[in-house]
């Protein structure tokens, strides 16, 4: 029989006469026995959980730094996670394309834009760390073969155009090349492999993980569990929890299953909760972001999201009850989502506003033909036709279009102070393309607290939990109340790379 | 040698050949061995952690329901926790005093007021549960001997006067009688007893706790740890974390140690974090409330807080830069705290606004003489004297006072829509009493998620964690973004009573 210490502090083991049997275990903090006696099914140098931007970038960076044995475990049957279906929008300051387009930008400017959207509670040090390394991450994607549209976009809340977008207008334009690069470099990739919890050592440090093999998402506990020793540590790159309806409703009871969500189904948050069980600090879980560019006429991210992200700078968003604009079309996401949710009919029911764009401008985006083809967007030859279709009062709408076109001319939006740089010469005129807008749950600002080394802090000691790193949407607090669009990919990749660097130095 | 299961799921124990030794333990979720082999130092029927409103009410209710062996453990040397130093303000709908004063109120009205302050994310079911039982809780305090001022107050965000206040203007006017009642009923009360974590059984259920005896707050791990079996379960009534600077800064980096805090020093949040380690759901930690009635001229809750809570309805809050009002003086706490924090000089430095009250009205509150005596408030015989002292522009201030007195006359505030019921006939006129205002960290809306049985939900299963109950500020999500003043005592007491009832039924 072995003596088992169930106490939280080693000092007090003696004299308590605790019998063996390991009947019960204390929470993982400060577990007191040495890591002897367990049979590891595998020993691996670096364990990465999740195959989105963060996990893939971590694996590539680890390999570059000389790691020999790097494994990525993905619970779904496919690789890429939620990253593979996002919009493929990548913000970075001081890039070749900014130089080409004559855009003056800096790390500090990007940080300042994000701090404003964060409404006072963003993590400035983390934002600066990510912005400082964003170009490196972008270069990693280019080196892997990612292809981008030959123009920059200026997304809501950004004071300048600094956003690249993949030619496929989708995150898969990054995850696929990075996955290919991982395999070229000898990274071992495992799908249907579900992380089931940590195995920790004497001082609560992470020594390894429990992994369910041959896992089938959504089925009742299939697969077999094995124990994997992670010699250098574990990088948690498990993403957000926007698809976990119970948990998002715990934060916001209005986010029921009836509210749309742009995320892949695997975004359910267990990895984050297992870190809370280790003592990680939950930060900003209450801040769940809805994408203001989504359409109620299609499921998920769909075609409209990228269409409207591209078109917002030179479009008008109209409240159908009044026929008037109701927001700066390129304000930050929270500002716009809140403004859209306030568009109601006289009984208070949702009345999704419409985004009106000149067809001549909208058609430059490849999704324009698709939104029309799939009846999630419509083309009109006259404002009368448009107004009738959406039951918008005609004269106020005509007056609004005329007023806005005056702002296009002067370059100053007297209604909402929109930055008109990207609207230059883009008058709202027939024929029009129109989509409907309604926010969808998109991104979890909350997660575990990390530092600029991608280490996870312990809630009791404030010190990093040894052997544990986290990167990407599973982390919280970086962006504060509202994340700016196209700032997630650089964050995921930079923090994934950072985790690999920290681990290889440790 | 015993076989030790380190897996998260019992099904998969067999065939993995895990050696004994209990070297490592999985996080507490779904721990798999039977609770055999541990030596309990004590066996207790009901364990209550924390001796504030929630813990005391739970103990009394448990005794009333026939519990034989109820113990309260308090980590500090004194009993009462942060409750003992709060303002002693107790909101309840449909009370004897409302009847006497002719105030029409209802449970639904109180819930509606709180939902508005919660800004869409409050927990309506919990609010209704608390409001429905608030009068019972108030009665428990009266039965125990609490004494209240013979008038109601109408606090910010409440649409009617429904707030009792202890004659000592302090929560000790409730905690002391409740503590006395506990002892009369045979509740065992232990001070210097620090909760150090849970001991859990086969399915993750709470079987008992680790308790450090002879603990001295703030010293380096003194005392001795014992194991206590809790036969009916554990009620966590451990309060908020407003005094844990690192953890509140994790949520809001602006809440540094330089920001004032009204809480007792023990409000450090370990109990909450131990529940997260068990798998409890963290809710709304990002929403930390600052009290808009606090003064920068004294530490903690001080004398001014109760003074200004009482006087806000018939006072004007003035921006010293402009000489004008800048908020509805009885808006909800967040609205007012945000408005005060926006009062800045031309360089953007904090310029605490002033609250001006007619001395004739303010002197009805017992703190008036104290705030003047201790130089945290001042009396002026003329508006000229007042304006000079605080460097407020005289003419705008005079005009503001005249304008506001017009609102007192008509009963309608055309500036900020303040409810003028309690301002009737209370004109702002010399001599004046004046205090300065600046928000202090006061209350954590966030905590563990509970249901209307005071059960703590598990983040993975959504089911209650067996043997575990929580009540009071350690719980989160009830109030949403902003808790209304005087709604904490009813919440703490009702949820404490609820926990006892659930436990005695289980």
UniProtKB/TrEMBL annotation, chains A, B:
One of its GO terms (molecular function) is FMN binding. Keywords: FAD, Flavoprotein, Oxidoreductase. Its cofactor is FAD. It comes from the Bacteria. The keyword Plastid does not apply. Residues 46-489 form the FAD-dependent oxidoreductase 2 FAD-binding domain. Its main location: other. It holds the Pfam family FAD_binding_2. GO terms for cellular component: cell envelope. It is found in: Cell envelope. Belongs to the FAD-dependent oxidoreductase 2 family. FRD/SDH subfamily. This is Flavocytochrome c. It comes from Shewanella aestuarii.
């Amino acid at each position: 029989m072995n003596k088992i210490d169930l106490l939280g502090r080693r000092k007090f083991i003696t004299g308590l006469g605790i019998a063996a049997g390991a009947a019960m275990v204390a929470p993982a903090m400060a577990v007191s026995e040495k890591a002897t006696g367990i049979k590891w099914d595998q020993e691996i140098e670096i364990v990465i959980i999740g195959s989105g931007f963060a996990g893939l970038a971590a694996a590539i960076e680890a390999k570059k730094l000389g790691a020999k044995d790097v494994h990525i475990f993905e619970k779904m049957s496919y690789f890429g996670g939620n990253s593979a279906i996002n919009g493929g929008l990548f913000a970075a300051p001081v890039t070749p394309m900014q130089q080409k387009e004559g855009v003056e930008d800096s790390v500090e400017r990007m940080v300042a834009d994000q701090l404003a959207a964060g409404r006072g509670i963003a993590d400035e040090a983390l934002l600066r760390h990510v912005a400082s390394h964003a170009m490196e991450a972008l270069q990693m994607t280019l080196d892997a073969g990612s292809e981008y549209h030959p123009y920059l976009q200026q997304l809501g809340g950004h004071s300048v155009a600094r956003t690249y977008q993949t030619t496929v207008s989708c995150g898969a334009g990054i995850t696929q090349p990075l996955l290919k690069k991982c395999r070229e470099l000898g990274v071992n990739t495992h799908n249907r492999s579900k992380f089931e919890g940590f195995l920790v050592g004497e001082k609560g440090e992470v020594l390894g993980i429990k992994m369910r093999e041959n896992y089938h998402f959504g089925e009742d506990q299939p697969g077999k569990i094995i124990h994997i020793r992670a010699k250098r540590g574990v990088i948690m790159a498990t993403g957000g929890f926007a698809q976990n309806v119970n948990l998002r409703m715990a934060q916001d009871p209005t986010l029921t299953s009836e509210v749309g969500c742009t995320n892949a189904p695997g975004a359910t948050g267990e990895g984050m909760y297992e870190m809370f069980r280790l003592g990680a600090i939950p930060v900003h879980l209450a801040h769940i972001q809805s994408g203001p560019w989504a359409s109620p006429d299609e499921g998920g991210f769909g075609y409209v999201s990228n269409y409207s992200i591209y078109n917002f700078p030179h479009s008008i968003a109209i409240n159908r009850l009044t026929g008037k604009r109701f927001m700066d079309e390129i304000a930050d996401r929270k500002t716009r989502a809140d403004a859209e949710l306030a568009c109601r009919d006289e009984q208070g029911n949702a009345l999704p506003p419409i985004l009106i764009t000149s067809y001549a401008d909208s058609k430059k985006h490849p999704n324009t033909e698709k939104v029309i083809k799939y009846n999630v967007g419509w083309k009109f030859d006259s404002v009368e036709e448009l107004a009738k279709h959406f039951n918008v009062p005609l004269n106020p709408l005509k007056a609004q279009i005329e007023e806005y076109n005056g702002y296009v001319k002067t370059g100053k939006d007297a209604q909402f102070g929109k930055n008109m740089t990207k609207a230059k010469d883009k008058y709202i005129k027939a024929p029009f393309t129109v989509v409907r807008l309604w926010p969808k749950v998109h991104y979890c600002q909350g997660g575990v607290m990390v530092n600029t080394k991608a280490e996870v802090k312990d809630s009791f000691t404030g010190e990093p939990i040894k052997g544990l790193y986290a990167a990407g949407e599973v982390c919280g607090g970086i962006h504060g109340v509202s994340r700016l669009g196209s700032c997630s990919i650089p964050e995921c990749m930079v923090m994934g790379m950072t985790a690999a660097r920290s681990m290889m130095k440790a």
